[in-house]
Specification:
By secondary structure, this protein is α+β, with helices and mostly antiparallel strands. It contains five helices and twelve strands. Strand 1 and strand 2 form a beta hairpin.
Amino acid sequence: MKFQKRIILIMVTAFIFIGAAVWGFSSLVASDTLTETEAGKLVQEMYGGEIVRVEKSGGIYSVIIQMQSGEYGVSVNAKSGEVMNLVKHEDDLKNKLLTEREIEKLVQEKYPGKITQINQKLEDAHSFYFVVLKEGTTEITLKIDALSGVITKSEKKKALPQNKAVHKITAKEAVKIALEQVNGKVDDVDLEESGGLSYYMVEIELDNDKEATVQINAITGEVLSVTWDD
């Protein structure tokens, strides 16, 4: 009799344990077990590299990771922590980037001013557009995510009046600045403008039959580049 009671007690205990385990598993599945940080750490421990960003859609984390061979996208189940796939993301990413025309349309829908400059730059393996536009006497610079089109930064400053000269340095001053960079004989000086930026191109001949071209900001006098030609 005692033996039967012991068997029954063991069976009841086992059922309670199994029931608790099932309930615990169900509770685990019902809620996310991974944070963005944990999902990124899981992928990094698996593949190495550097985490670029982590995004979540539904119950799936999309982890973008930069490795020596390129940029990859990794999908991670937010509930189970299962890593479902690894896809090289670099080529697909380029195809998904917004074009300059699309960025221009997006900006014009929100700002009535005239766009004077659009540049695309890479920051921490992520592409951004930098757009400069004028609204009356105000100049606005926008930083826009090249993937989503989200404006991440906006700066305003007073624009230079159009009826006043914007060149603060003369050609003579530009030559002096150029010769401080390259020692030689000045062959030509041109004032040029591109994308709303005015600059001097100073060509200098050297004794070794080579030629250097110094690009100088016509407003600030900053040396933008020095190129060498044979």
